[in-house]
Design brief:
With 290 residues, the chain is α+β, with helices and mostly antiparallel strands. Helices cover 50% and strands 12% of the residues. It binds a DNA duplex (13 and 12 nucleotides) through helix 6, helix 12 and helix 13.
DNA sequence: CCCCAGGTCGTCA
DNA sequence: TGACGACATGGG
């Protein structure tokens, strides 16, 4: 993978198993929008990025090789060998179908605080509305970045949210989750090392620590571990996995405990990624929204 | 007007 | 432990 700088833009040979549309719409990221020219634009890790797939090239606009190597390579999981990983997961017909359907899905490595808040909001909520609330949160409390086309906003830091009241959170649509968010803000901004320490813990310890925040249960903690900390073995047990085990695999009486055990047994170290393929496939197979 | 959404919390056996 | 209703909000 050798990037070529052309004027301000970085051109990269399109990686195998990589599709921007799938990456941004599979329910892991709520911060990128598709533009009329087919490019995607959004803010991640505090920076604006616009990028586009064109034939066999991936173009990162206004990006240099340094930024690519230090930030975007890891963000887009281009340091992960999806060919090998997919082969390991390809063990049964339903999974094979999901892999084929989601040929371009990769698990992004996103900002930890952003994932904590985003998936705190995700509970008992639907994907379009999660995106709407996250956008409102950024517009209200993030830092503006002016581009040629529009004004974008960074995801607000714990510090930027430290003095926001529950009422204000409610007013942007958080509903009963507003108090959960103030608790999360209090926990993280009251302990400068909270986030830093989290990433150094074992998966089990980190999950426990996350769950001490009110409103973060097992499933939300799992999403945070998977989407921000590259704990690929963690398979979030949501309504979809349950449905997939029951309907597609024909296993009845799935409890949370049973779901985790099955995922571990079937997909092992990549159970979380397997879940994402199945989730994406099932959502598009059965649903019309989103 | 009822049902649902990438769940979690508090409560009561 | 395990089941069950409540929870804000908006869209179908």
């Amino acid at each position: 993978m050798k990037p070529i700088q052309i004027k301000n833009d970085l051109h990269i040979a399109l990686p195998d198993y990589f599709d921007l549309e799938q990456i941004f719409t599979c329910g892991q990221n709520f911060r990128f929008d598709r533009k009329n020219d087919g490019s995607y634009c959004g803010v991640a890790l505090g920076q604006v990025l616009r990028l586009k797939q064109q034939d066999n090239t991936l173009i990162l606009y206004d990006t240099d090789e340094k930024a690519f190597e230090e930030i975007w390579m890891s963000y887009f999981a281009l340091d992960i060998d999806y060919g090998t990983l997919r082969k390991q997961l390809d063990t049964d017909p339903p999974m094979r179908r999901a892999l084929a359907y989601g040929y371009g899905i990769r698990i992004l490595k996103q900002d930890l605080w952003e994932m904590i808040v985003t998936f705190l909001i995700s509970q008992n909520n639907n994907i379009p509305r999660i995106k709407k609330i996250v956008t409102a949160l950024c517009t209200a409390f993030g830092s503006p970045i002016v581009t040629e086309q529009e004004i974008l906003y960074t995801f607000p830091t714990p510090r930027q949210l430290a003095f926001v009241t529950e009422i204000e959170f409610q007013s942007i649509g958080l509903g009963y989750r507003a108090s959960y968010l103030t608790d999360a803000v209090r926990t993280v901004s009251g302990d400068d090392l909270f986030l830093q320490q989290l990433v150094s813990l074992t998966t089990c310890e980190a999950r426990e620590k996350l769950m001490r925040i009110k409103g973060i249960g097992g499933k939300v903690a799992d999403c945070i571990l998977l989407f921000a900390m590259a704990r690929y073995e963690v398979c979030p047990h949501d309504v979809w996995v349950k449905r997939i085990f029951e309907n597609t695999y024909g296993i009845t009486g799935i409890t949370e405990k049973k779901g985790y055990a099955l995922a571990e047994e079937k997909w092992g170290e990549y159970a979380g990624i397997a879940q994402q393929f199945l989730f994406h496939y099932e959502r598009h197979r059965t649903d019309t929204n989103g």
